[in-house]
Amino acid sequence: MYCFQIRFKSVVASLLMSGIFASQAMAQSFDSCVNGLRQTAMNQGISQNTFDKAFKGIEPDPEVLKSFDYQPEFRIPIWDYVAGLVDDERVADGRAMMKQWSKILDQAEQQYGVDKNVIVAVWGVESNFGRIQGKRELIRSLATLVCANKRQTFFRGELMATLKILQSGDIAQEFLVGSWAGAFGQTQFMPSTYQRLAVDFDGDGRRDIVQSVPDALGSTANYLHRAGWAEGEPWGYEVKLPENYNGPSGRTTKQSLAQWKSLGIKRIEPVNSVMKKQMPDSAQAALILPSGAKGPAFLVFRNFNAIYSYNAAESYALSIAHLSDRIQGGSTFTTAWPTDDAGTSRAERREIQQRLVDRGFDIGDVDGLIGAKTRTAISEFQTSVGLPVDGRAGQRVLRALRTAGSKSTGQ
Ligand code: CA
């Protein structure tokens, strides 16, 4: 749940990456930076012992700075984004988790008034139901960012929050690992979010969003509750626009449902749609068009914004919302994405990778994650068979790989 626009590239980062990091001067400056942090920590009530234990053997992590400065060279189309996050595998996993944790989820729904399907959908998207939580040591990552002057105030606050977690004894340091930016646990909370919103839902006296599923689910419910979740209301639903619609849209442009209806916008009632409470005509809603007026359109209510607050991206919020519907038996979107090359599921992405490996391409691990190596291999394959070259793991390249079989291309 950590996301921001990279605003600048610093000279420091490129120096660090070119190996000067290891120099005595830099090491000293990291040490003196850590000394300054020790003082800040003491001022905030963190004990010398907690601090020294936390920083024992900590060195800066150049990989973290690379991640900070990394600017993806292309934007992922919304249909690729949603196809990877809301695939049959995650829907099936979500349903299994609903069953396995039904008692806890019922409790969380009751106590916080938040739809349990949405709680599970957040869990599924944030950490693949606890399976992917990140592997970077929080203290190390955050100290690296602070000492390299990266959004220093923000990351210093997160570092102090991490030290407070250690001091409280809620989570041991070996489990305080996560993304390069410090999001951790099954909920991928930032440390300050953990401080504000994590709850002990299994009653063992510790708030442990890393190892305790009940704590993770309860904490997510608390987060959404505090973000303004309105009990019993839907997040929104897919709608049909009138022909050539060019009226208002956008998440922050709100008007009453009656006004949207007067513009000719109608709720789509697909087969297998999830039963949702009818919202009154006075309800405030926004029209979102993630791929313009030609693609799927949605009217969203305030609960969509509660999900959005978890990670400020509409594609993210829509994926969670949609996954929560699919888990309950809801259908896929009725209107197709405006593309002739639809996105692929994670199973299909693994198949694409395996077929590339079979043809002699080096794509790293067959893990369904489409990174730079896979994209390069796809581009080369596309060139070799005369397809348009975009490096995307879409349906078209999957079909072409199936047709081509595993014949070696002499890579
Ligand atoms: Ca607990």
TrEMBL record:
InterPro entries: Lysozyme-like_dom_sf, MltB-like, MltB_2, Peptidoglycan-bd-like, PGBD-like_sf, PGBDSf, SLT_2. Residues 346-401 form the Peptidoglycan binding-like domain. Transmembrane segments: none annotated. GO terms for biological process: peptidoglycan catabolic process. This is Lytic murein transglycosylase. One of its GO terms (molecular function) is peptidoglycan lytic transglycosylase activity. Residues 29-325 form the Transglycosylase SLT domain. Residues 1-27 form the signal peptide. NCBIfam families: MltB_2. It comes from Sheuella amnicola. It comes from the Bacteria. Keywords: Signal. The lineage of its organism: Bacteria, Pseudomonadati, Pseudomonadota, Betaproteobacteria, Burkholderiales.
